[in-house]
Design goal:
The chain is α/β, with parallel strands linked by helices. The chain has two domains: about 5-60, no CATH class; about 75-210 and about 280-305, Vaccinia Virus protein VP39 (Rossmann fold). Helices cover about 45% and strands about 20% of the residues. It contains 15 helices and nine strands. It has helices at about 5-15, 15-25, 35, 40-45, 50, 55-60, 80-100, 120-125, 140-150, 185-195, 210-220, 220-225, 230-245, 255-260, 275-280, and strands spanning about 110, 130-135, 155, 170-175, 200-210, 245-250, 270, 285-295, 300-305. The strands form two sheets. Strands 3-2-1-4-5-9-8 form a seven-stranded mixed sheet, sandwiched between helices. The longest helix has 21 residues, at about 80-100. Bound molecules: S-adenosylmethionine.
């Protein structure tokens, strides 16, 4: 299981205590850092600390950081790349342990829609054991991954299945911020495809938007504005969500998506309710757990085991 203590150990082994204190501007003696700094500060050493100090970056990370301006990364979301990615990867390893499929003993693990490999960054380094795979529609993500993560198998595919992997190939698949984007018909095609490539009893762990974000939108106009909606559109989205359990709208410029290999008609924002999942997904999966709003006070986790 991925833990903050593994990050502490990396800092200790690379004698990076002084670099961390300096990069983060901490009022703490370097020799006391590992005992006294909170987990949040230790993770920040790998995120904003490493962005501020090239020396620290080179000591504690084993790979470079993707450059701003490439792979759809801008300066603002570098924290997302390095900080939140750690907590997401940690959560998936905790679910793996909880449901009897530890990453360490899995044969093969797929990061479906791996983007810049930001979760794989921590897993490959700190949770060795499985053969890691990353899949993407975006050739730029695949090329960067292949260049920097030689131990990961990358799979490029089209926006619709098939993915080009064997039946039952994976013990664990996780998909961070993928099912939060699919049109209803496309989400079902991918759900059946992921069921096919997951081994019987294997774990599928996804994030999605749902009731938690809808309720936030109802009480916080700034939240629906950030989703590109005005009040009228937002109201019609949450009415559809209440009635059907699945509400999808497109919100990105199609031409900007299509250069990244994404199908602009079927990729936007999707809200999926807990009840919809219990009604429709249980033909393929046992739903082990749904956690609303657990991902950054916004997205929900759905943890499933393959049936059959
Ligand atoms: C919000 S990003 C999340 C990336 C990564 N999971 C992460 O958390 O950093 C969504 C990713 O899904 C990929 N994607 C787009 N269309 C897809 C499709 N039809 N199937 C699978 N992935 C797709 C995009 O290229 C993009 O990298």
């Amino acid at each position: 299981m991925l833990s903050c203590d593994q990050l502490r150990e990396r800092i200790r082994q690379t004698s990076a205590e002084k670099d961390v204190v300096k990069a983060l501007g901490l009022d703490i003696a370097p020799e006391r850092l590992l005992a006294e700094a909170s987990d949040q500060f230790i993770v920040r050493a790998f995120a904003d600390g490493s962005l501020r100090s090239d020396t620290l970056l080179k000591k504690i990370h084993t790979r470079p950081i993707p450059e701003v301006g490439t792979q759809n990364i801008d300066k603002k979301n570098m924290g997302y790349e390095l900080n939140r990615a750690f907590w997401h990867a940690k959560a998936y390893t905790e679910f793996g342990d909880k449901y009897g499929k530890p990453f360490e003993t899995a044969r093969a693990v797929l990061d479906f829609g791996c983007g810049t490999s930001r979760l794989l960054r921590y897993l490959v380094d700190f949770v060795p054991g499985p053969q890691y795979y990353g899949s993407e529609v975006n050739p730029e993500n695949i090329a960067w991954g292949k260049k920097n993560y030689s131990e990961v198998n990358y799979v490029q595919h089209e926006p619709t299945p098939p993915i080009g992997c064997d039946d039952s190939a994976f013990d664990i698949i996780y998909a961070q911020s993928i099912f939060s984007h699919y049109a209803e018909s496309l989400h079902w095609k991918w759900l059946t495809e992921l069921h096919r490539i997951l081994a019987p009893g294997g774990l599928l762990m996804i994030t999605k938007e749902g009731r938690h974000l809808v309720e936030r939108c109802k009480s916080e106009p700034e939240t629906f504005k950030r989703l590109g909606l005005d009040r009228q559109d937002a109201t019609s989205i949450w009415q559809r969500f209440d009635e059907d359990g699945y509400a999808f709208y497109t919100r990105y410029r199609k031409d900007r998506l299509e250069v990244r290999g994404i199908d602009g008609d079927n990729w936007g924002t999707a809200f999926i309710s807990e009840q919809y999942i219990l009604k429709n997904w249980t033909s393929l999966f046992d739903i082990l757990e749904q956690q609303e709003g657990a991902v950054g006070n916004r997205q929900d986790y759905v943890i499933m085991r393959r049936k059959g």
